[in-house]
Inverse folding.
């Protein structure tokens, strides 16, 4: 292999590494968006769970009061 071929091969490899670095940055950005969406969904699920629990507790309390009244 001549020096020219080595330099050309190194240049090609450097270009490929640059492309791969860009792809990794793009994947990291997409992963950040995905993690943010999952975090928001988890918060929404917790809110629904709390509201449901409070609703069930209030319903149980109202039922007990209704039974005492009637």
């Amino acid at each position: 292999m001549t020096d020219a071929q080595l330099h050309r091969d190194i240049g090609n490899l450097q270009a490929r590494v640059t492309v791969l670095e860009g792809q990794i940055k793009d994947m990291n950005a997409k992963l950040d968006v995905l993690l943010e969406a999952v975090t928001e969904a988890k918060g929404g699920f917790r809110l629904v769970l709390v509201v449901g629990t409070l609703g069930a507790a209030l319903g149980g309390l109202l039922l007990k009061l209704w039974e005492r009244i009637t």
Notes: The first helix runs from residue 3 to 69. The chain has a mean pLDDT of 91.
